[in-house]
Structure formats: structure tokens, C-alpha cells
Amino acid sequence: MSRKFLETDGPQWVQKGIITEEQREQLLALYPTDATAIGLLPLLGSFLVGLSALSLVAANWQGLPELVRLALLLGSLCSAYAAGEYFRRRGNTNLGMGLVALGLILFGASIVLTSQLYQLIGYDLTGLLAWAVAGMGLTWLYRSRLLFIMTVVIGGIVQGYNTGQLGAFSYLTAAFTALGLGYYWWRRPDSLAGGVLAAGLLWQAALLINHLHIKITWFVVPAMLIYAFGDWQPDRPAGRAMQGPPLVAAFLFTLGLALFGESDLYTGQLRPPLLAYLGAMGAVLAISLLGKRQRGRLTSATDWLLLLPGFYFTGGLALAVATLVVLYAYSGSVLFRAHQEQNPDRVTLGTVLFIVTTAVAYFKLTWGFMDKSLFFLLGGVLLLGLSWYLRRRANHTFADKTPAKS
Amino acid sequence: MSEQPISVAPPTPVQPAPLPELAPALHRRWLQWLVAAQVLFVLGVAAAGYATGALGKSIWLRTAPVDPRDLLYGDYVRLNYSISQLPGHLWHGSQLPRRQQAAYVLLEQRNGSYEAVGIYPEKPVEQSNQAILRGSVQDVWRRGLRLRYGLERYYVPEDMSRELQKRQSLRVQVSIAPWGQARITKVETAP
Fold this sequence. Notes:
heterodimer, A: mainly alpha, 16 helices, about 80% helix, about 0% strand, B: alpha+beta, 2 domains, five-stranded antiparallel beta sheet, three-stranded antiparallel beta sheet, 2 helices, about 20% helix, globular, disordered N terminus
């Protein structure tokens, strides 16, 4: 990225006398050409070759003798790993890791196809679990983000198959994914991996809640536990990424409460046993707050506004309105903190949240008694005005910032 | 990068030591182990399948008519056996059956195929004309229960899928290994 910038704008700087031609070349030398672009072509080529081999084998699969099929599977498995290791050692990391990932996929395919070969459809999930274990082993071995993400996905597939086809939840798989990958991420914090891991764990938590047939509100307990884990992560961006998916879930949950909260039928479905739920949430809140204090981020405690258990009140419309107030408080706090930290991404996020909340509030409070065309007109004007104001606020903040920095 | 507005001086965060890369020799050894384990696992699956067919006891089971339209959804058919739904009076447990519980079905030969004579929560003793199939309870209702054996799916070979054009019952040969594992070895259309 930086090199491209230098290449396009560099000559102008020389022209304007800001830097000399030698200095430009020295700067260019600081940013060598990216090796990834070169690695992409052979990757695509081998992908196509592999695809043709695959379709040839797949077309004749049924006709091949059993031993040949087994040898084909194991041969391609081993050669994928060997080739991956070869390229990685030659310095072509992307291609190497891609091949190792292919090896992991081939392992899963081998398990499934070998079972089919002998008409084995076990009703335990040993085979699939072995796939997840292999993914975990490779992640730790290669310290690779690609393999990490694949292991999250494999864990989700294993759990989905287990609850969907076999009608049982595998606590082993859940604990294995959460602990093995969680500890890995703790030691090697990374934003993308954090977000993916959080999403994968939320998926498993949702499957568990669905499997146990308990109130869906319980979902937020594991979700916020993941959030609290992000609080303890010393690496701030990675921790924030881990907290993204749980926060999205909590926001949507509260938004749903604002939209449908006045119907007692809906809130009734949300009410778990009071003491157990509040006890569990209190414990998670304590873990989260301790983490925030430890890392000096207590201001982000406003995130917990979304978790106010408003559904216990049978207030009808008043409950929906109170929930809207909470949503406003939350999106307002996001905006406020973003302006304080002068963080443009978070300003955008806060703006979007604020506008969504306003749209819901407007829809909720005026739909019933206003003529439809007037409703849309006023709503549009309101949102346009709001976004104009918020954008002006944001520009103002960043205009303050720019001269201070230069 | 920019000055972060931190209000109170926080306790210095304990940054865990970043995870170092593995030493090359260690990396190579672990990789060899990991790949070998994967190969052995696949071979183990194949060996278990082969041994079940070679060493197991063969029995024939009857299925309900198979819907040929099922074939359109993939390369397998869903099999529903005569022993998939059983009357509740065959249950021999001290407590009522629960969902997800393991169940051992005692089978006895009756004119050509095997039929259930009892369902047990623990493995019973079998006679020479009998066989035991392990399953799990899927559903319980007042008069009976539905069981699942892990034999409900049959990957149809190409030459057979042409035979299965109309709705008909099947005879399924199942091999039960001494260690309890079972697999389908042959499928025929019932006369």
C-alpha cells in the first residue's frame, strides 16, 4: 500500500522540491514489492489443475477399487502437507500455508469418503472431532491465522452436524474450541482471528440454547462471557474485535425489545428465572468490569447499558420507550467516546447506531397516528437532518485534530 | 500512536509473553507426528469398516418401501427398517426409555430376515440364532419408540440406482462385528 502511494505521488514531491530524486529512491527501497501478488498466480494455476484432477477422480470414483480410492485420498493428503512445507521453507509462506490448509480439508474429505466407502455412518462424532483436533494441532504448529480461522469453522460444522443430525450437543467440542483457540488468541492477539473466533463461539452458543429449549435470553450470558474475555486482552484492537460480535448480538436483542417490547407475549418468552439469570449476568459483569479496570478501560463499561434486563417489566409501551432511551444512551456514549478518542471508524459506527435507533424510535412512536405520506416525509427529513448534523460534528472533531498534529 | 486520553494511570497491563515460533527441528518432528496421526486415523476408519464386514455376523433386515425420489437429493437413500419403530412392550428396562439413551435390540431370525424380540438398556446375552444391534432411542411415545442404528443411510452404487426407479421395499444385509459395530454390506430389492 505505502509503496503504491510513493510510486504515484513521489515524482510530484520531487518536482515540488520537497525531496530529491535520491531520497525518493531511498524511500522506495524501504518498501519492497509485495511478494503476495507474485504468489497469487501459481496459487490460481495449481487450484485449476487440482480442480481438473478432482473432477476426473470424482467422475470415476465409484468405479475405482477400494484400495485405489484409499491410496488416492492418503496420497493427496500427504503430498499437500509435504508441498506446503516445501514452499513455506522456500519463503513462499502464502502458497505454503494454502497447501497446508488444503491438506486439512483433504483430511476431512478422507474421513467422510472412507466412511462412505464402507457404508459406515457412525452416530458418534469421533471422525468429525478428529478433524477439529487436526485443525487445532496445525494451528498451534504453524502459528497461522488461516488455520486458526479454518479450525473455528470446522468446530462450527462439527457442532452443527452434531446438533442437527445426531440431536446432541457436544460440550467437548465447545470446550475444546473455546479453550484451545481462546488461549492461542490470548497469546497471539489478532483482530480478524478475534472477530471470527467470537462469531464461531456465538454460533455454538446459539446451537446450545436451541438444543436445550431454554429461553433465548440465556444466549446473552455466553455472549457476554466472550465479551468479558475481550476486556482482559491486553492488546486493545484485538480485544475490541473479539467484543464486536457479542455487542452486535446485544444491540440487535435490545433493538428487538424496543420494536416488540410492548407485547407481553413477546417479553414473556424472554423472561428466564429472575435470580438465576441476574446472578449469572452479575458474575459476567463483575469479570468484565474487573478486566476493564485492570486494563484501564473503565469508560467502555457503557457497553453494558445494552444488557439492562428490561424484559422483566410488564410495562407495555412504556417498556418499549424505556428501551429506546437505553439505545439512545448507548449509541450516544459510543459517539461521545469516539469523538473523545478521535477515532473516525468508531464515529461512523456511532453515527449508524444513532440513526438506526432514531429510525426505530420514529417508526415506533408515530406510525399509529400519522398519515403515511407525512410519516415518511418527516422521517426522511429527520434522518437527513440528523446525519448532516452528525457528519458536521465529526468533521469538526477531525478538523481540530489535523492542525494539532502537523 | 496518538495520545490516548487515559484518565487515571492504569496498573501496567501484564502483557503475556508473545507465543514464539517453534524451533525448526521441533516443528518438523511435530508435523510428522500430526500427518502420521491423520493417515493412521483414516486407515483406522477403513480397517474398522473392512473388519466389520469380514469378521462380523451377517443378518438380513427388512425396510419399509423406499421413495425413489429421495435419490434426487443425493447419492444415498434413507432407509426405514421394520425395526426402526418398535412397540413399547418390548422394552426390558427397569425405568422408562429416555431420548438419546443407548439401547440394545435383540434380533431373532423369522422367515429369512431378523426381527426384534426385545429392547434392553444393557447388552443382553444372545443365542446362536439371535443377534444384537446397538442403537439409540430417538423418540418415545405412549405405545412405542423410534430407534436409530446408524444404518439409516445407504450410498447407492450407480448400477443399483437404476433398479430403484419405483417405490419398493428393500432387503438389507448388515454385518455386526463382535465389538458391536455394524455396517451395511449388501442391499437387494425385496421380492
